[in-house]
Amino acid sequence: xxxxxxxxxxxxxxxxxxxxxxxxxxxxxxxxxxxxxxxxxxxxxxxxxxxxxxxxxxxxxxxxxxxxxxxxxxxxxxxxxxxxxxxxxx
Length: 90
Description:
By secondary structure, the protein is mainly alpha-helical. The protein has helices at 3-21, 29-32, 49-73, 78-81.
């Protein structure tokens, strides 16, 4: 795995985890009773983006290290994920 490949794997994993973490523990303006004029009533009161970004980074580091370990160990190769090599047998 190249450095560029590792960075791309980390960034893609980070964004996937971030999109999963983002809606957790959200309190909407309707639930809190503090609707700001001009905003959607379903908008969060306090989205805590910074805290969620740190949590995402910690989870991503663990998942990324596991994925890099599997890729670098050789357990899984590109040949294992290639569906088109099955057509060669037909």
